[in-house]
Amino acid sequence: MLRKFILMIVVGTLFLSCERDSSKDVTKPDINHKVKMASPRELSAGVSTIFTATSYAYDQNADWVTGKLYDRFLNGDALYDDPRDTSTNPKTGGRGPLFCGTSCGSCHNNSGRTKSSLITDAGTGPGDFSSFLTFIRTPNDQYHRNYGRVLHDHAIYGVKPEGKVHVKYTEEPHTLPDGTKYSLRVPKYWITDFYMEDIDMSQVEMTVRTPLRHVGMGQIMALDLDEIKALEKKQYPEYGISGEINWVNERGKRRVGLTGHKAHHSDLTVELGFLSDMGITSHRYPLEISYGQPQCTEDHGIEISSEDMADVDLYLHCLGVPSRRNINSEMVQYGAKMFRKAKCHLCHVETLHTRPEGATLIDGTNLPWLGGQTIHPYSDFLVHDMGPKLGDDFSQYNASGDEWRTAPLWGGGLQKIVNTHTDYLHDGRARNVFEAIMWHGGEGDVSRQIFANMNANDRQALIAFVNSL
Ligand code: HEC
Ligand code: HEC
User: Fold this and answer.
1) Nearest residue CA, atom 42 of ligand 2?
2) How far is the C-alpha of 176 from the C-alpha of 174, rounded, in Å?
3) Is the CB of 390 under 6 A from ligand 2?
4) pLDDT band at 3 (very low <50, low <70, confident <90, very high)
């Protein structure tokens, strides 16, 4: 966590009416100082915009996070980052018997997307850590006997991991209309070393997912859902585009799905992440993820407190959203026009709003600063059919195998600085923005074609624009 302010070039003056009482805290700089001086085009998330373009760009609190809120933020940040061991210490222990990562930050390094590594021969598992999550089930949409939703490829000493995931990439050569050659890498996944009965891969439906960046979690939780419902009604038959809300059941209610690659969750999955990804039980999920497996029958009790769970939730909600960069570059400005020309903005929606009251944490704490803001996530938070080549045959609620949530693009251009790689799409198969666009099929096909038919300069400008977000 870094609290360092980077001086920005002043490009305009904007007055925001949302100053809050916490600005009276004299030990902190005027919280909206930079926001006031910034150009509206730079402000990705209103008063939560931060002006940091370093490796901490996804991992810094918004300026309104002060006083007691800031103490809780730091506690949440530590719980998020510090690796869990197998002790019974409620702050640092509880890991296992089965797990996928050792801390939230092991997969979401710097609150971003840790590069996922699957070595074909070795696969995932101990010694070959990978930040992917793999979901498995039978062709009849049931869990496999002795397995659950997630394939846990790590385990504590004396317990067998549930299996190992492998990948083989095949290069698929292509040529653009102007003769430029490029290649897409097509993944094929499989599992070996099942811990109990060997399951034939024909009996396994699986999907492999790369971690999501934690940019704008609070804003997503505060979204004005009427706006999302209105976007669902707005269809573009001339371009074959019609997004859909993924309605999910969470905490016993039907809700608008917002998070996850298929928008298959409505919250920030904090308790589920601790349980399912690290094997840490909470009051919401008191039973170990391995419960019922013959190899680990012990009950370990509650391993993390509800207060700590709420602080991790608070940490994610209070992260700032990095401002846009290079907005005065001619190339970036021209690229913004190309982005619209290619109809990218019909799914990667430029501007949304948060509801007036802001967001409420799992412990009931309200964060009014997240309310009433104009935000630029470059997503409609709807799921779209992206064609069978990108599909995984793994439906989640009403999102079919070929449907994916429009990936929010804000902060995406900083992924290289934060996580040292530019792997994109739900399983990281695209090695850069160009490849990510060329994978767009189905409802994204028109965009891909317009982009492919542009001259090299226009394509380059469009990519420069995407990288400025
Ligand atoms: C083993 C790696 C791994 C660990 C450990 C992990 N995550 Fe994740 N996380 C993922 C992957 C992969 C996804 C995307 C899953 C999907 O949507 O299909 C994800 C998605 C998320 C999302 C949704 C973000 C969005 O923009 O929609 C949140 C929030 C999240 N994780 C929080 C956490 C928290 C909190 C922890 C720690 C308790 C955690 N994660 C631990 C891999 C991990
Ligand atoms: C029909 C809706 C739609 C259109 C139009 C569209 N996209 Fe996407 N975009 C998506 C979806 C859905 C995903 C997520 C796909 C996945 O993860 O497999 C995505 C993913 C991406 C990603 C990867 C982001 C990441 O973090 O992994 C980039 C970059 C991107 N789109 C850029 C563009 C650009 C540039 C255009 C215009 C040329 C465009 N998209 C047009 C729906 C769309």
Assistant:
1) 406
2) 7
3) yes
4) very low
- Statement: residue 25 has pLDDT above 60: no
Distance 36 CA to ligand 1 centre (A): 33
| Ligand nearest the Cα atom of residue 426 | 2
Ligand 2 in contact with 452 (CB < 6 A)? no
The domain limits of the chain are 77-212+266-313
CA–CA gap between residue 273 and residue 11 (Å, rounded): 41
Atom 25 in ligand 1: which residue has the minimum CA distance?
Answer: 259
For ligand 1, say whether the CB of 312 is within 6 Å of any of its atoms.
yes
Q: How far is the CA of 370 from the centre of ligand 2 (A)?
A: 26
CA of 113 relative to ligand 1 center, distance in Å: 9
* CA 278 – ligand 2 centroid, Å: 30
Q: Which amino acid makes up residue 197? A: E
Tokens (6 digits) for 39 = 């150009």
Task: Tell me the ligand closest to 271's alpha carbon.
Answer: 1
Give the model's confidence band at 1: pLDDT under 50 very low, under 70 low, under 90 confident, else very high.
very low
Q: Give 193-208 pLDDT, tens digit per residue.
A: 999 888 999 999 999 9
Q: CA-to-CA distance for 165 and 150, rounded, in angstroms? A: 12
**What's the mean pLDDT in 365-376?**
97
Say how far apart CA 305 and CA 340 lie, in whole Å: 47
Q: Whose CA is closest to atom 37 on ligand 1?
A: 104
Q: Quick check: 226 and 333 in contact, CB under 8 A?
A: no
Q: Which ligand has the shortest distance to the CA of 218? A: 1
